[in-house]
Amino acid sequence: MTKRKQVCVIGAGVSGLAAAHAFKDQGHDVTVLERSHELGGVWAPHRSYPGIRTQSPKDLYRYTDAAMPETYPEWPSGAQVHGYLESYARDKGLLPLIRFNTRVTGLVRRGQDTGAGIPAGGATADPRAGGWWVETEGAAGPERTGYDFVCVASGVFSERNELTHPGMEAFRDGGGTILHSSEYTDPALVRGRKVVILGFSKSATDVAVNAVQQGAASVTVVYLEPVWRVPYHFAGLINFKRILYCRASEAMFPGWDMSWGEKLRHALTKPLVWANWRALESLLTLQFGLKQLGMRPSQPIENGISCGLSLATEGFFPMLKDGRIKAIQGTIASYSQGGITLSTGDRLDADVAILAVGWKIGVPFLPEDVRRTLTTPDGQFRLYRLAVNPDVPDLGFVGFNSSFATVLTSDVAARWLVRYADGQLARQPSKAEMSGWIDRHLDWRRSVRPAARVYGGLCSAPYHFRYLDDLLADMGAARRRRANPLAETFLPPDADAYRSHLSSVPAYRLEG
User: Where are the bilayer-spanning segments (predicted)?
Assistant: First the structure.
């Protein structure tokens, strides 16, 4: 038996809904704080650029207890994902729990001074009981509410990167438009206009293709370095999930806390693994015509398959070949009326500059002492199971375990977090055990998977199975793998299978 808690979930995107459902399903009282006027996070219509689709197939991008509609295509559109999330929130009774247009401005441990003039509301339990004051700004002004447990599900990348270059005002004064890729929501903005896109992420290539389709006068992508991209179908035939999302492919990467047997297997198979990656590079070079385009990446593909796996936007490489999209290696040096000068010295006529430069890492509302505890000097987060820190009680994170199957990993991590918060894990760790795991995990990331550093050490990809195995074992699941060993080894993660695994976790009840 454990006590019912007042739980605050920050964010109503994919991970926030997973956390809200997990805590509510166990019987806790849940409030979800969402700074915008609608749920969905990155899939909210006001943040989605035209033509956006999932990078993961629909059978991977789903909750364990709700499949996407059969009518959805293999890779659903942004609008379809948002519709799925809205339906999920409605069906699970989460909508009444969400306070929209409510921005979190700070967290303070209960019992500490929270400043004058901020009215208290909601749960205001004895500060000696632990928990947090959550300070917010909404339509009613500033408020302060006490909670027993806070789950941060707002995403590690929640603030846009904002770039400044000389001449931006002159460019705007001449009628030019400069915006972040997340602000490109109206295709009319590019019709008949000369468009320059800075960046080479999936969003950059998506926007480039959409701009061509919407009738832009010209489209130029400016990028620093070419990166390996994966097609939706290898050789136009094989769905990439069959090759890259199974245990067999995951086993080619050295994981954390490997046994001696695993280390021996990696040593013995290293030549075969090396040959596999070189063959894949050759296939991609041929399929996309990278050598002819002068865009064959120099780094090995296995080094880039980490937290992010960039899919090739359909139509992007054919449009490069026929000239509808121009690509220049470099970056923006300055703006002027009607044009942009690049670091290469090239001057491009431009009406619209779309900056696909990503998002800042961090959680701005955390107090400084908590931020210092959670992060290392090199910017890595100290989170056990990518979810909690032993020195910051009553605080957890969902969705900070970036993966190729975000909905699934957030769903299972949220259910793990509920049991951790309630002290009901079958393997409830001590502070020393958590700190030891964190130290080993970050040492492993720095030495074995340095590509993950840009994510602050917060990603489970490409180790979906290994990460989920750990969570299920912690929860005491009697089932952790599918009955068919061939399916478990050579097929992608299966959300229905994980629903079955979760159903084998020991149950417990709350007091009251």
Answer: none
